[in-house]
């Protein structure tokens, strides 16, 4: 820009550029009727003014229809999407654009401080980017190029509002590649041996969950997953403690742990299915995002396929969830003390349906991630 601002009545090459940008954004018809061959004649007419106001409104700028420095910056930056060009901090000329804002939003979502989300690549953004790169295990050069784009792409979109350990968790989710095949899953049927768990309405928890575990194991084998069970079904073999089961999952380097229990309550009215993941409401920073995502998926699939009541999913700090180094989820598949739940769980067909729901939820969890660039991030605040 050669002058301070452009407004209604102006002409010239800068106006031609403004028109081009507005047309690119779909805010202005590309060719004005009176436009001649020379860009010196490009008019800042009423149609341009209307389009500028619309753009300013979208971006939270003062909608005065005048293109000053801040409006120009945003107009000029709107053509960039994250991944279009290499981003880096330059002391003389700072890059600006929607791609910078998208990177800043992404850093912020992942728990790194990019400074103000203003679409300008300044020293704070560089610092946040280097911190992210260190956590991803890629060269911390502060350069947002192909290596960083690829790593960002591989992060699950579900990882938001996080801490570094969540990023590592998401990385782990992907390091064996997308899809279920090749994953290692530990299935943990609760109790076992002399410990039968809840016993009510003629059923024992240890038996029900062992049956469910073997149904899930069979289905996982069919889709190329290596499944390990934390116990057998011999009633004479003492069952391992939760800490020992968690250590087992860590030893086999599992991708995910699924612990299965049934519930019981003094009130015969308590009923339904509930899922639990690692987390604490008192310290929200310690919380498994992948665990929560999978818990929600499992809960949704089981409730959709059975008539078990929806008991929702919740964060807990139980040993099995806390001591496992990978995401872990516990499913309580119903109340044996509830006559209706017990009658359902006594049916092999229903247990088979639950096993199917667990596998569908797993498939959804390990779906390849959507491309980062389709995740449109808008400039939230004005630069003015
Ligand atoms: Zn139990």
Report a brief summary of the structure:
The chain is an alpha/beta fold. The chain is 41% helix and 11% strand. The chain is built from 13 helices and eight strands.
Walk me through what this model shows:
This protein folds into 3 domains: about 15-75, Orthogonal Bundle (Muramoyl-pentapeptide Carboxypeptidase, domain 1); about 80-155, PGBD-like superfamily/PGBD (Muramoyl-pentapeptide Carboxypeptidase, domain 1, Orthogonal Bundle), CATH 1.10.101; about 185-365, Aminopeptidase (3-Layer(aba) Sandwich). About 40% of the residues are buried. Helix 8 (about 205-220) packs across helix 13 (about 350-365) and helix 10 packs antiparallel against helix 13 (about 350-365). With about 375 residues, the protein is an alpha/beta fold. A 6-stranded mixed beta sheet has the order 4-1-5-8-6-7. Residues about 155-165 and about 370-384 have low confidence and may be disordered. Helix content is about 40%, strand content about 10%. Zinc ion binds near residues 190, 191 and 205.
């Amino acid at each position: 820009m050669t002058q301070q601002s452009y407004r209604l009545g102006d002409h010239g090459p800068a106006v031609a550029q403004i028109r081009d940008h507005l047309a690119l954004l779909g805010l202005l018809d590309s060719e004005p009727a009176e436009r001649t061959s020379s860009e010196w004649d490009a008019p800042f007419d009423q149609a341009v003014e209307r389009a500028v106001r619309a753009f300013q409104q979208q971006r939270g700028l003062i909608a005065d229809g005048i293109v000053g420095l801040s409006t120009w910056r945003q107009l000029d930056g709107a053509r960039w999407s994250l991944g279009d060009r290499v981003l880096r901090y330059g002391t003389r000329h700072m890059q600006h654009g929607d791609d910078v804002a998208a990177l800043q939003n992404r850093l912020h979502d992942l728990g790194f401080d990019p400074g103000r989300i203003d679409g300008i690549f300044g020293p704070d953004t560089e610092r946040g980017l280097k911190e992210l790169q260190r956590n991803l295990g890629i060269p911390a050069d502060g350069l947002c190029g192909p290596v960083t784009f690829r790593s960002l792409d591989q992060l699950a979109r579900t990882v938001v509002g996080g801490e570094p350990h969540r990023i590592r968790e998401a990385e782990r989710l992907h390091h064996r590649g997308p899809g279920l095949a090749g994953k290692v899953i530990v299935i943990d049927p609760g109790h076992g041996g002399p410990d039968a768990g809840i016993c009510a309405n003629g059923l024992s928890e240890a038996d029900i969950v062992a049956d469910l575990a073997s149904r899930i194991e069979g289905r996982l084998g069919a889709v190329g997953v290596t499944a390990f069970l934390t116990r057998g079904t011999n009633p004479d073999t003492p069952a391992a403690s939760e800490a020992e089961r968690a250590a087992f999952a860590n030893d086999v380097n599992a991708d995910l742990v699924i612990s299965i229990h049934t519930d019981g309550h003094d009130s015969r009215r308590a009923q339904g299915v509930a899922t639990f993941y690692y987390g604490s409401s008192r310290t929200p920073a310690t919380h498994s995002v992948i665990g929560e995502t999978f818990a929600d998926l499992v809960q949704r699939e089981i409730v959709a396929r059975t008539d078990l009541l929806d008991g929702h999913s919740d964060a807990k700090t139980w040993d099995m969830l806390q001591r496992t180094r990978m995401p872990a989820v516990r499913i309580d598949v119903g109340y044996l003390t509830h006559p209706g739940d017990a009658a359902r769980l006594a049916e092999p067909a229903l247990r088979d349906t639950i096993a199917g729901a667990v596998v569908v939820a797993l498939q959804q969890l390990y779906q390849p991630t959507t491309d980062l660039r389709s995740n449109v991030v808008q400039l939230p605040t004005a630069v003015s």
